[in-house]
Amino acid sequence: MKIWEQFLNCILPPRCLKCGCILPDNRGLCPRCIQEINFITAPYCQKCGHPLETLPENGSKMLCGSCLSKKRTPFRLSRSAFRYDENSKHLVLAFKFHDKTDNASLLAKMMFVAGRDIFNAGADVIIPVPLHYTRLIKRRYNQSALLGHELSRLSGLKLNCRSLVKHRRTRPQVELRGRERLENVKGAFSVKKPEEIKGKRVILIDDVLTTGTTLKECAYALKRAGAKSVDTLTVARVV
Fold this sequence. Notes:
The protein is an alpha/beta fold. About 35% of the residues lie in helices and about 15% in strands. The strands form 2 sheets. Strands 1-7-6-2-3 form a 5-stranded parallel beta sheet. Strands 4-5 form a two-stranded antiparallel ribbon.
């Protein structure tokens, strides 16, 4: 297999998934493109994962203003690998809309590192945010399910793509703002097999966290079905 891989690399050398330059191995990104990506590292809110400006002086856990105000949330923890900005969005958009499904392996590895405290806290099952069947037919694949498959392989956790469903077609969230996003997805998700969810600690997977409305609606559906806890893990986050 190693000889065959070397032979293939001679004919079709691996390229950087972002800029397209030839790489010496299948590392995914060239050093320059890796440096350009704004990974989310400490300090960040210990609950929702939002990047913060300073570290705590007394060594205590830091929470953002929203989490300090104890606003109701269905999430236990939320984490994202990097900021969604001009330096990273090509990777995400190419994967999501332009059939660059090979990006899933690299992006999932980044998510696995970013979500290490979620995995350490304990989890039972990985569930991707589902697409409505009409959207799935048009796109031909669910990008969140591909990420979930790779994360399942990395973590050893079971992947469940059957239980959580999107039973109502909605407008793309990117077309909407504020309150419209909330109303657009309200009640759009349900759990078809609650017996597979009851008592489970769920890791909910998606590509980008913008306002969090889609993830929240999915989490509420999972909690109604009896999920013990719901964590969210995404590739990128709008900050």
